[in-house]
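Course assignment 3, question 2. Fill in each field.
Student: A.L.
Task: Predict the tertiary structure for the chain below.
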Amino acid sequence: MTSRQEISTLPEPDPAEQGEWERLGVDTSAPHSARVYDYWLGGKTNFAPDRAMGQAFEEAIPSIRAMAKENRAFQGRAVRHLAREHGIRQFLDLGTGIPTSPNTHDIAEAVSPGTRVVYVDNDPIVLAHARALMVSTAGARTTYLHADLRKPAELLADPELTATLDLDRPVGLLLIAVLMLIADEDDPWGKVAELRDALPSGSCIALTHPTQDFDPETVATVAAAAQQGGMTLVPRTRDEVTRFFDGWELLEPGVSPVMAWRPDGEPPADPTAAYYWGAVARKK
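Answer field:
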């Protein structure tokens, strides 16, 4: 296993990779969670420090790329379920990350052309890719906001959001592998509660969160590695994840390993092989 000293010694970014990104305000000298995730998914928008951090995580958890893909697969199943079974025609995707096909609007519009989607992230590199998210079918509308999940009131009042989504009608709120970036002292539960309270009856939340419940020692090593690299990564228990849904009706099978949430095909032999909890809930 990679030592803590090795993990914290990250390489300098390749000058050839910097250029335009730095002019856009992207810090290429330190790893960023969205770019590390992009690396695991096989994307190309990542730099040497991101790859070094991703590789360090892989030393501790060799299957972490597969876990990232399972998390992404949950998102697809959840969006399709909300569109098909609950008639959700507008989505608010928070912490959207670097575009990875299929994106939320691709999945939702395949079920119902005309679906509206607002993507939100606070990473300049995602902003630079925003145009890639804004290609929709006729009658649909897709918008990207450069905003911060930690400021839900500002986010919900943004004119671009209110011009795209009707907050008097049900909304599908997506919080896919993003809340682990908010430390306990910043009260992620309170931030999510503000979002829940602003949405009308019939709205739904789809959420995933990394957890230490399935392998405490290994996940603790990865969380420490992230901290040394300047990243916040807070794994949470099942009870802590369940708190994000307070007052809403959890849909079957409740808070479960992401691989076990309404899988396509046969149930997985080991649903805890991906270290994420996932669930979908509905506001009565």
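Instructor remarks: The chain is about 40% helix and 15% strand. The two ends are 47 Å apart (CA to CA).
Grade: pending
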